[in-house]
Write a structure and sequence with these properties.
Length: about 475
């Protein structure tokens, strides 16, 4: 797969490795894009071979979210789920929080980073539009030349290309926090409710003179995704809004002018004409929600994370040990279901676990779409097909085999049997691991929470009714068992 793997423990060490290998090595954080790109040959070395990787996720202090002098700063390991759960982001950068919530599923959001989304630079990537509307800046660093900061629209130079030298790493993102006079929203149109690539997405941020409906717009930023080679600002619409109230007439005209910034194509997800129509519709909807104070309608009060007690911050420090000793990076072992297990490298965690005999972990898609390979890594639910095997050396992994035994099933396993939630059984291990993680943070889930937790798990047999019933039943069983103690 990748030709070599390094896991530095400090940022300076990572910068040294990047300077040493240049374009022959790719920095890895969430890996939810990078591993697929390497597998498909999108990312290559100059000699045509697969690149090596420099895994940053063991470096402490890179997953911070901080406010300083009116600006919000994100470290390079900040994940989408961290943004969803972070009060500062939700209150002062809501378009970004909303976009992060729309990305993939909990398992993906536990690994995928905002910086990684920006570096991939796909025009359909969800977090780029809100960051552009928030006037974000990107900070990069090299060992030799030091640090430089540039606007996001200058960092992204074209379709999937960025201004990042071979010896540089992105060390952070920053943007001004929204003020009391500002509000913003992100709206995504996909072909399904979850795990969908944007057909069109729109982020809007508007600052007004006051709170009344006649308050004039002081500043407007409207960013459009998936309608051009890069995410673009609708400058004609933005300038039109300044000095005017956000009423029906100005919203309609601004939405019409936003289409001028779009240069969409026909592709498998949509026609160009449909995208143009949706730019107008979504822009009008976004501005209407800002005008009426409805930007947070539907926002979950308690989002499902599937990250246990970790707070979702990499690296997670695990101190668990077994009678046979602790898992170690140096001897290439992980603590798998409570036992120290040797795992081969140079492959995904999914393939490595199966090579080690853990066949309960299934390969349904090998690209993070189906959730059949869901496992718990250091307490967080992740897709094993999107994690390098070497990343778990010295860490703790729990698969479906580690949740219960034939004699004593896990409550979720028992509930699946009772409710008829097991169908062909292929996807079942992933569903059970996700549901077990849900019960850790939500002991008594309702059907809505269960559906939210399982958005990353796909069943090809039939419907989800009995599966959701099983998750709710498992929570009820746990509650009754605890009450009897």
């Amino acid at each position: 797969m990748y030709t070599f793997y390094h896991a530095p423990n400090t940022l300076d060490e990572a910068l040294y490795l990047k300077a040493k290998y240049g374009d022959d090595a790719r920095a890895l954080a969430g890996a939810t894009d990078l591993l697929l790109e390497i597998e498909r040959g999108v990312r290559k070395r100059s000699d045509g071979r697969a690149p090596g990787v420099i895994d940053l996720t063991r470096i402490p202090g890179l997953a911070t979210i901080e406010a300083r002098d009116g600006w919000i700063h994100l470290g390079p390991l900040v994940t989408h789920n961290q943004c969803v759960a972070n009060t500062l982001i939700v209150e002062k950068a809501f378009p970004l929080a909303r976009a992060c919530w729309e990305v993939g599923a909990p398992q993906i959001r536990n690994r995928a980073t905002v910086v990684g989304n920006v570096i991939t630079a796909s025009p359909a990537n969800d977090t780029i539009a809100p960051l552009l509307a928030l006037d974000a800046r990107v900070t990069v660093r090299s060992l030799e030349r030091g640090e430089r900061t540039l606007p996001l629209d200058a960092f992204i130079t074209g379709f999937r290309t960025v201004d990042l030298a071979p010896d540089e790493l992105v060390t952070g993102l920053s943007f001004p926090a929204l003020t009391e006079q500002s509000d913003g929203i992100f709206i995504k149109l996909g072909l399904r409710r979850a795990q969908a690539i944007s057909v069109v997405n729109v982020a809007a941020v508007v600052e007004r003179e006051g709170a009344g409906e006649d308050a004039a717009v002081v500043r407007a930023a409207i960013a459009l995704g998936a309608v051009a080679p890069v995410v673009v600002r609708a400058s004609a619409a933005e300038s039109f809004l300044v000095g005017k109230p956000l009423n029906a007439a100005t919203i309609a005209e601004a939405a019409r002018r936003a289409v001028e910034a779009a240069a969409p194509i026909d592709d498998i997800r949509s026609s160009a004409d449909y995208r143009r129509a949706m730019v107008e519709t979504l822009t009008a909807r976004a501005l209407h929600q800002i005008a009426t104070g409805e930007t947070r309608v539907g926002w979950p009060q308690q989002p499902v994370m599937l990250w246990g007690d970790t707070d979702g911050v990499w690296p997670v420090t695990t101190k668990r040990r077994t009678e046979t000793g602790a898992a170690s990076k140096s001897d290439q072992t992980a603590l798998v279901n409570g036992r120290v297990t040797a795992l081969p490298g140079a492959m995904t965690l999914l393939d490595s676990l199966r090579a080690a005999g853990l066949v309960g972990v299934k390969e349904g898609c090998a690209e993070g779409e189906c959730g059949a390979c869901t496992v718990s890594l250091d307490g967080m639910a992740v897709m094993a097909c999107m994690v390098p095997a070497e990343r778990v050396w010295g860490s703790e992994v729990v698969t479906v085999e580690g949740l219960g035994t034939a004699a004593q099933l896990h409550p979720v396993q028992q509930a699946f049997v009772q409710s008829g939630g097991v169908q062909c059984g292929f996807c079942t291990p992933g569903f059970i691991v996700s549901a077990a993680k849900l019960l850790e943070e939500r002991p008594h889930p309702d059907a809505s929470a269960a559906a939210e937790a399982l958005t990353g798990n796909f069943c090809r047999c039939t419907g989800y009714h009995k599966i959701l019933n099983a998750v709710v039943l498992a929570g009820r069983t746990v509650s009754e068992n605890n009450a009897d103690k």
